[in-house]
Amino acid sequence: MSRSIQDELIYEIYDKLNKQYFNNSLPYIRILWSDRFGHGEWFKQFGDFQAQPGKRPFIRLSQKLCNEPKEIAKVLYHEMVHFWLYVNKRPWGHTREFRKKLKEFKI
After folding, report:
1. Does the pLDDT of residue 42 top 70, yes or no?
2. DSSP per-residue string spanning 39-100
3. Which of 8, 70, 72, 92 could form a disulfide with 86 if both were Cys (CB 3.0 to 4.6 A apart)?
4. Residue 99 has pLDDT above 90, yes or no
């Protein structure tokens, strides 16, 4: 799958998830593909959310997912929950609130 088709697909999925689970409350965020995943915990193998003081946050997804729309949606939703908590100025780790929101996801 070409990069532009991947990018188009990922933002299409982002928009659908944002509407369905976050009431379109999440702003645009940069989403990157990476081939550097593969070690550590499950979420580190397939994606992560990064937010550092003074820098714009971003979501990074493993290229291993690029041909699997359902897997993209699952991992992207996980990272969007982190982003949702961050946007709402709440702890954005794997907190109780995070786990509760994660359970809302249905494929």
Report:
1. no
2. SSSHHHHHEEEE--TTS--EEEEEGGGTT-HHHHHHHHHHHHHHHHHHHTTS--SS-HHHHH
3. 92
4. yes
Between the alpha carbon of residue 3 and those of residues 8, 55, 67, 87, the distances in Å are 9, 25, 11, 28
Q: Where are the domains of the chain?
A: 3-102
The rounded distance, in Å, linking the Cα atoms of 60 and 78 is 11
CA–CA distance, 33 with 66 (Å, rounded to integer)? 8
The strand pairing partners of 33, in sequence order, are: 61
Segment 69-93 mean pLDDT: 95
Structure tokens at 83: 């982003």
Structure token pair of residue 98 = 């995070």
Separation CA 86–CA 65 (nearest Å): 24
